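Contributing new complexes? Match this layout with guanosine-5'-diphosphate.
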Amino acid sequence: MSEQIGNLTFGIIKPDAVRAGKTGAIIQRITDGGFRIRAMKLIRMTREEAEGFYAVHRERPFFAGLVEFMSSAPCVVLALERDGAVKAWRDLMGATDPAKADAGTIRKEFAASIGENAVHGSDSEENARIEIAYFFSQLELVNSE
Ligand code: GDP
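Output block (do not edit by hand):
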C-alpha cells in the first residue's frame, strides 16, 4: 500500500470559522473542489502545539497573536487528496489577506481579517508532509481505495 503523498495537502479550518458555524460550508467547498478527505478531526490546540506548528513565523510581529488565536478555540485539521493538492487548496483558500482574496475563494467569503482568515493550507509538498505528520498518525490517514 503506497502513499500518494505528492497528492496530499494539509488544511485547517481555523477557530474563527469553526466558531462562526462555517465548518460544514467549508467542508462542502472542499469536496465540491474535488478533494477527497483522507483524515479529519476537531482539536483544540494548546499554546505549545500552536507555537510548534507556526515555529517558522516565530520572529514575526504577529506570532504571539497568531498563537493566541489558534489556541483560543477548537479548529478542524484535514488531510486532503487531489491532483495538484497543494496549489489547488491554496487557490480555493484565496490570498492570506481576505481583502485581497479573489471572489469565490473561501477567505473572501468567510474570513474577516488577515489575522483571522478562516483557513490554513500548506505552501509546499514537503510542508504538507510535515504538517500532516504533526497532527495525524499514519493510521489516521484513511485509504478509501
Ligand atoms: P498563509 O500561508 O496564507 O496562511 O500565510 P502565511 O504563511 O504568510 O502566514 C500564516 C498565518 O499568519 C496567516 O494565515 C495569518 O493567519 C497570519 N498572518 C500572516 N501575515 C499576517 C499579518 O501581517 N498580520 C497578522 N495579524 N497575521 C498575519
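Reviewers usually confirm one structural detail per submission. For this one: The radius of gyration is 14 Å.
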